[in-house]
Structure formats: C-alpha cells, structure tokens
Design goal:
Strand order of the largest sheet: 3-2-1-4-5
Helix content: 25-40%
Order of helices and strands: HHEEEHEHE
Low-confidence stretches: none
Number of helices: 4
Strand content: 5-15%
Length: 134
C-alpha cells in the first residue's frame, strides 16, 4: 500500500505583520523620546577651583523646592540669562565664574535651564556641593 505524501505549506498572515510593525514603531518612538536623567551626577568643585573663584560675581542656588536664587535673591529661570549677562558684563575671562549649588533632590528639569542660562551669559560654572557628613 502506497501512502500519499502530503505537502505542507506554511503561511504567515500578512495582516498580523502590519500590526507587529506598527507596534514596533510605537515602541521605538517612545523609547527614543524617553530621557533617563538618573545617570547625571554632580561632581564637587576642587578646593583649588574654589580658591581661584573667590572673585566670583554671581552665585546661583537651586533649593529643595526647586526655586532659583541669584546672589541670594529669588529669580525666575526665564530672567536668569539676562540677569547673569548684566552681572558678568564685560568682565575679564578669568572673572566670569558663576558658583552653582543644586539641592541633591533637584531634577534635571530644574537645573538644566540654569546651566543653559549661565552658558548664554558666557559664565564659567563651578559646581559647589556640601561636604559629606560622616
């Protein structure tokens, strides 16, 4: 008795491929737009840098409530670049130091605009951190 051979054909439904491609596209778009700021760490300024920066003209502090202060006075982040430009004025290159102190819980949303404002004003940023307590 002869057994007939069966031919097997694998078919992949083309409708499922479109769905998979669309879901992959959405996944990669979301992945590309997500920003993970957990890798950002503040490194303290060395003692020598702080000694050189004694003639600083400006200091910017971002407190626990993410409020910005320029030389001890509250300031909106939108006004910071103009105020820093006025403060630094035509100072020599070595006297354009801006001390920046950021609270440890502040997020990048709050300190990145400050860094951009200092950059627009032509300042040189020195990060200041509190010494670790033992």
């Amino acid at each position: 008795m002869k057994i007939p051979k069966r031919s097997f054909e694998a078919s992949v439904p083309s409708m499922a491929m479109g769905d998979i491609a669309f879901l992959l596209l959405i996944f990669f778009v979301i992945l590309a737009r997500a920003q993970d700021d957990s890798h950002l760490r503040w490194e303290p300024a060395a003692e020598e840098e702080l000694e050189q920066a004694k003639n600083y003209k400006a200091s910017v502090v971002i407190d626990v409530d993410s409020k910005s202060y320029l030389n001890g006075r509250p300031i909106a982040q939108g006004q910071l670049a103009g105020a820093l430009t006025d403060l630094l004025g035509n100072a020599e290159q070595n006297k354009r130091t801006v001390l920046l102190k950021v609270h440890k819980d502040a997020t990048a949303i709050h300190f990145e605009p400050v860094i951009e404002a200092v950059s627009k004003a032509g300042g040189e940023i020195h990060h200041v951190l509190e010494k670790q307590r033992k």
